[in-house]
Write a structure and sequence with these properties.
The model has no long low-confidence stretch (mean pLDDT 82). It is rod-shaped, with a radius of gyration of 35 Å. It has helices spanning 3-18, 38-73, 124-131, and strands at 80-83, 88-94, 100-106, 109-114, 118-121. A hairpin with a 4-residue loop joins strand 1 (80-83) and strand 2 (88-94). It contains three helices and five strands. By secondary structure, the protein is of the alpha+beta class. Among the domains are: 37-74; 76-123, Roll (SH3 type barrels).
């Protein structure tokens, strides 16, 4: 091929590229590259998101659930607790199967709760510090 032919083909490729027309990539043997399956390109990103979701959301949530279950199973009679509704009372009775608790809220006032409605033990010291009393 002569120099004039190379200049013309370079000029044609430049014009095609400027007009937004894709120039086919020719490999060493002259064959076009095989198209890559989009699923193969998307799979690593999808796997990365699933792993990140597990470590950011699922694992901490499972840890909190386990901690809450241990806390609720450790409750016993005469423990001072707070419910998820904000009621503070002392456990006076736990049912035989352990699913229900009776709280003494005031003299003569007893309320039955299911175990899962107990938020946790009530700490009067932290309450006094947070209110500034």
């Amino acid at each position: 091929m002569n120099i004039l032919g190379l200049k013309l083909s370079a000029a044609k490729l430049l014009t095609l590229a400027q007009n937004g027309i894709a120039v086919p990539d020719v490999g060493a043997e002259g064959a076009a590259a095989a198209p890559v399956n989009p699923l193969v390109q998307f799979a690593p990103m999808l796997i990365t998101f699933v792993v990140m979701f597990y470590f950011i959301v699922m694992r901490p949530q499972n840890r909190e659930q386990r901690k809450r279950a241990e806390l609720l199973s450790a409750l016993k009679k005469n423990d001072k607790v707070v419910t998820i509704g904000g009621i503070i009372g002392t456990i006076v009775d736990i049912s035989g199967d352990g699913s229900r608790m009776t709280l003494k809220v005031d003299d003569g006032t007893r309320i039955k709760f299911i175990r899962s409605s107990i938020q946790g033990p009530y700490d009067e010291k932290s309450e006094a510090e947070s209110t500034g009393s």
